[in-house]
Structure formats: C-alpha cells, structure tokens
C-alpha cells in the first residue's frame, strides 16, 4: 500500500481533469460495460441505477472530483466515507477491486484511444490503487465495528417479515426480526439496510431501504414506496408476505442524526424521504427530551401521506417538537388545520419565518427536485455547509454533489 502518490502521478492525473469533464460519463459507461461481462461482479450492483444512467453519471462526477483534487484529498473525505458505506452495504470485498481497476483502465483506452498513453494509464493505475487502499481500510474498520457490536454481523443475514403495515396508498412498512433469534445492531437513525432478493424476474436483486424506526435492539422497520417501475418495491409490496424471509447486510450510511445534538434540529422531508426523519424523531423523543425539533414534511395529499398520526403522537409526547405538513395537491376532502398545515410546497421563506433558521441543523431527504431546491436554497440563504446534512435515494445528484 503506497503511503503517498508520486509527484508525477499527481501531475498527470490532474492534467486529465479537462478531458474527464468532457468524456467522463462515456468512460464510466464503458467501464461498467466491461465489468458486467463478469456475472459474479455484475451481481454486486443495483442495476436500476445503471438503467436510469444515474450511477455512471455519479461515478463520472466522482472520478472528475478525484482528478481535480488529487493534490488535496482532504476535501474528498465525505465522498470517500459515503462510498465506503455503500460498499459495505453491497458486501463489496477487497478481492473485487482488481476487476474494477482492469475495467477502468480498459475504458480509458476504449474512449480516449491513443490519447490514453502509457503515462496516463500508469498514473491512473497508481491513483486508483491508492484510493482503493484507503477505501478497503475504511471498509474493514466499518465491518470490524459491526461484527464487534451487540447484534452485529458481517455479510448477509436472514430476517423474517414479522409485520407488514399499510401506511398510505403507496407506502408500506415491514418490521423485520432476525431469523436466528438474536439481537440486532443499534443503527444510527438515518442509516439504511441493503437487501438481496430473488424476485420472479431477477435473482440477487439489490436495493437500499432506510430504517424508519429508532434502534430497539430487536427489530428493524423499513417503509417502502411502491414504484410501478421499481422491481424491488413492487416485489416487497405485491409478493412478500408476513413470515417470508429477506436478507440484509448491517446498517450503513453516513447520513444520520448527531449522537448528541447541541443545536435545534429541522427534519425536512418530501414524500417517502420522511423515512429517515421518522427514525430520527423517534430517537429524539426517546433520548433528547429537551431538544428543539421541527418536523417539516411535504406530501402530495392525504392519500399518499404516510405515518402522519405516528409523527403527531411522537411530537406530542416529546413536547418540544413542532410539526408542519405541506400538501402540494390537496384533495377536496383535505383541509388546512385538519389533514395538513399549509397548501403548496416547502420553501426557504417559510423556513426562515417558522424555524430557528440561523442556528438549526437541517436534515433533508426527498425527491431530486425537492433536494435541489432546498439544499441549494439553504446554502444560497447563508446556512453554513456544516449545518446542512442530506441523503439521496440512489446516486448523488450531480448538481448537489458539485
């Protein structure tokens, strides 16, 4: 394992950044095409992200950021942590890295042709393995911590679907208990589980679903929106029943409630993005009785709004939580003050007027348009980056990542 990159490698890789800005996505698509020729490697991935094009685009952005910042890797710490957490979730192991190296260098030749000369290939090979060693070290530490903790495990573990609960027209919760009867690792509220399913159309399908409950040592709960084109969510909603078995790796993810919050908290969500926020609110109600909390949620209407009564009950029990719900397309039967609090969309002006805007930590999760508007809006309104914490369902949006 190299302790540092050579000056030549740094110079060569940095010099490739303008080329990557133009051809990066073509390179990552070619890389995945090479990787997926190996069925064992292909089985490690969530192919929904490949079909949508989100993953090649996200990886292209990450490769470009690595090239641009290779002489100042400290700025990439958050991205490295996010990647390591995803790798642990998908059970990507040290022995898988060689295949990626071969595919990446081959893809550079595929796309750049003779411009991918020996100096460039040598430099990118060194740079790849330098980053790979950092990731492997971090992933080993995450796995070791999970294995050593009460209720922890490594790799895939079988869970029984103990309860299946309809939360709204489109969202259903699944309470999962280990088949082996043992305890479960205390996750950090906001983290997710990675699942492996054998569906009628695909064996070994992988999906991430956020844990929607605070830690209790015995079970996990996930709350999943049914997407008509989502093979994983359709399988869970339409096929999986109480008593069935699903497999998951340990909780992962770098988006979670601070262990000891020392500022007011605004939990800001759209649609099914409320799942990590409900887990956080449960933890706040249990462990942080004096913490000023604002639960701000945007939904289309009452038909699709999930867990509304549960959230209101948690807020009432806590005593220091204010709930505000926005409906963008209320039904004729919906009424402000009854089913929800505000007609329309959550916006920055409302947050300025109704939350401790200048002092709070903002936690956000929701659809891409919601995230683009509010994460970028908070930053533009002067909220410092250390007070804006957010999660994506799927690969990071390239605009927000930038």
Description of the structure:
This protein is of the alpha/beta class. The chain folds into three domains: 7-148, Orthogonal Bundle (Globin-like); 157-248, Elongation Factor Tu (Ef-tu), domain 3, CATH 2.40.30; 265-401, Rossmann fold. The protein is 42% helix and 18% strand. The strands form two sheets. It has a six-stranded antiparallel beta sheet, covered by helices on one side. A six-stranded parallel beta sheet has the order 10-9-8-7-11-12, with helices on both faces. A hairpin with a 4-residue loop joins strand 1 (157-166) and strand 2 (171-178). Helix 10 runs parallel beside helix 11. The longest helix is centred in the N-terminal third of the chain and has 31 residues, at 118-148. 38% of the residues are buried. Mean pLDDT is 92; it is low at 397-402.
List keywords for this structure.
18% strand, Globin-like, disordered C terminus, alpha/beta, Rossmann fold, 6-stranded parallel β-sheet, 3 domains, 14 helices
Helical run tally: 14
Integer average pLDDT: 92
Main sheet record: 6 strands, antiparallel
End-to-end separation: 30 Å
Order of strands across the widest beta sheet? 4-3-6-1-2-5
Evaluate the radius of gyration: 22 Å
Note the run of SSEs as H and E. Answer: HHHHHHHHEEEEEHEEHEHEEHEHEH
Strand fraction equals 15-25%
Query: What's the overall geometry?
Result: globular
Q: Provide the CATH architecture of the largest domain.
A: Orthogonal Bundle
Could you provide a short overview of the structure?
With 402 residues, the chain is of the alpha/beta class. The protein is built from 14 helices and twelve strands.
